[in-house]
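Sequence in, structure out.
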Amino acid sequence: MNDTTLEKIKYWTKKLLLLVFPFIIISYDFKKNGKSIKYSVITCLIGIVIFLNFWSAIFSKESEMDEYKSKVDEYENANSEFATQVQDLEKDNEKLRIDLKEAQEIETPIATEISTPIETPIPTPTPIKTPEQPKEYVLGNGNFVAGKDFPAGTYDISVVSGNGNVSSDNMWSGGINAIMGVGNDDMYQKEYKNIKLPKGTTLKISNVKIKLTKVK
């Protein structure tokens, strides 16, 4: 037998004893005082009816209490079940929130700001203009060295004034050895072109003024 059956047996045994006990007491009292059994039985039955009504009221209250307790238990069970469902929903919601956050971190790259250094423009150096040397040189009587008295190079030589002789020590390698002048005589040459006067060459001028025009 389980615990519930034992409790029921104990319960109804107590109730039976309580029902029989007044009958025994009343019967004994009536017998002791010499009263008739019939009267004793009637009195006992009245006591039993009162006793049953009393216990019926008590049983009714107990039944109502049991019903109320049953409803309370049902409410508590439902409330407990609801609380469990709420906890499960909160856990599911938290799991979904974590999954959504992880998905956003995977799909959306984190924007990293990269600072680009500002390039400072390097100023372009301004070339220093070297004053151009004059391409024409007027020379008179004397000895002049190319690269010292005038730049070495190739020149056109023309008469400015006078009549005389013009020669260079490289006369056989592109230099000059000529009589130049402004006279109308055919012996005086007015101009020579592409005369080479390399560095170190000595140019001799006598009794005539000439102009050297640099061609290269």
